[in-house]
Structures
1.
Amino acid sequence: MVRETRLSVDSLIEPYFVVPGKKERREIASMPGQFQLSVDELLRDCEKTVELGLPAVLLFGIPESKDALGTAGYAAEGIVPVATRALKKEFPELVVIADVCLCEYTDHGHCGVVEDGELRNDPSLGLLAKEALVYAEAGVDLVAPSAMADGQVLAIREALDAAGFVDLPIMSYAAKFASSFYGPFRDAADSTPAFGDRLGYQMDPANVREALREVEIDLEEGADIVMVKPALAFLDVLSQVSEMSPVPVAAYNVSGEYSMVKAAGQLGWLDEERVAAEMLLSIKRAGADLIITYFARSAAAAIARGDL
Ligand code: PBG
């Protein structure tokens, strides 16, 4: 009765990794309980998502083949557009969010165009805008640019507006840190950079003022939801962003945060469910309106049982 913070199922977003083919259900080695799914299997899984009352899914595509410009990321028949059309047909009320980035589609694993061994910001913007537009045309409800390219929110907003998608909102990965907690995700999406790191475009984990500035810039460019990522090592950033943001704030409880708990759970060192619940509560308490988490499903089940 006197509990100050409550988790509700409608603030949770479940991420999915979608692969080409049929009947594909490959468990991700470093993320027990998470799978790369083909579209038919994704549809099966999402029955459960909807049944549990989860409102939204976040899609990541893993293409058949990758190239220097990430062309599979903005192909009209690419993996995310195909998955989106199938999902919207089967579950019209499920909110489909598409991650907009090129690192899953480039052979070098960086988030945009690379020239002379360096990511080039401005040449990347057009491709990211094109990717967002292709996803809009496929019917996504929300686009979520995660490349940390300067000006990406504006470039995407302009491209969407010009094509008539004036009502399609943007959830911006505004304060995204260059974090080692993404390790398992890069296994899952096969997107580990072939050379170098992402420190040139993602933020230094030491910086909170810079994070607030990144959020302000994305708001000016038209972000409708701003995100802090990762969540747990950045709860102070999340708290400050939630105080200043005029729009809803999302937090990404990333792959490494999930894998640590699963690993310790498997070893019998931690009570997985309770630790996950505590983590999600801490993210909510710090001010997140929305939480993207690989625990979405287990948390929704716990909420339904009255355990969370
Ligand atoms: C794409 C992207 C990444 C994640 C979300 N979108 C990887 C990265 O930036 O390297 C990480 C999510 C996770 O770790 O769960 N840029």
Note: The radius of gyration is 18 Å.
2.
Amino acid sequence: MSDPRRLSGTEPATAVRRDALARLDACREAGVEPCLATVLASDDPGARAFMDRKHDRCAEVGIDTRRVDLPAEAPAERVYRTVEELGADPAVTALFVQVPLPEHVEEAAVRARVPPEKDVDCFAHANVGRLVAGDPRVRPVTSLAVDRLLSAHGVAVAGRDAVVVGRTTVIGTPLAHLLCRRDATVTVCHSRTEELGAKTRSADLLVTAAGTPGLVDGSMVSAGVVVVDVSANRVAEGVVGDVDADSVGETASAMTPVPGGVGPLTMASLLHNVVAVSAPESVSNGLS
Ligand code: NAP
């Protein structure tokens, strides 16, 4: 088979960013200055680097940010209070909480403290409910990124057999939901899935978000599959996805690069969501 088509996220990300900036101008003209607050409770250098990128992208376009990084052992009450205080601060228009949270911090208690109207990643309970009901106030940034990537490259979804590897509430589950709403037939795999290869070989469209380098190799995919690798795993050689690009590339018809695939679109989608939740209704119409 010839080389797979490269599903780059760079060009679509530029378009999303341009649109977000136009809305940002309109937002400011309407008298609202967006401000993104983030909360991280982790010692993981990867999570901190990912948070750096969020703040860098906002700084590049002059969006104010506030950042609270807590150690992984911070008491749960401190995490809850931080989210509550930022949520209640009138200067903060957008709020993002990094997951996974440490085990002693109850995710549900944090979700309950994120004001739905400031929620940039569909984390608040009410927003998750609206997403599932098909009336989203805001969509999770990573699924928004994958949706735009597929659309930008004209990848057909309706009627296809889609397999999603990973089921977290912020990535795998909303992705499965998105693909189902776009009329794919969706299988969700996770760490307890037996015979993963049998499931992935059934895919016309394979989306991986397992955070495990080399999880999927060429023996686990069928000819012509379209592969979207969401993962960004830090290894000694740099950043890699879950898919062994060399062997899978011999069989796939199209693949995202890592880096340069979903990642740039996720950052652009974050900007989009920051503006969307910050803007008055007249500006945010059609954004979410
Ligand atoms: P996570 O919390 O570790 O979750 C991994 C998911 O994959 C879980 O659902 C897990 O199953 C499943 N899984 C793990 N090992 C598996 C295996 N051997 N077979 C099948 N399923 C397996 O990771 P995450 O926070 O969701 O992040 C996943 C990846 O996405 C990471 O590489 C992260 O850096 C990347 N990421 C990328 C972007 C982007 O924009 N490109 C944005 C955010 C995150 P269980 O539920 O059973 O544990």
Note: Residues 100, 142, 145, 165-168, 171-172, 189-193, 196, 209-212, 215, 230-233, 262-263, 266 surround NAP (CB under 6 Å).
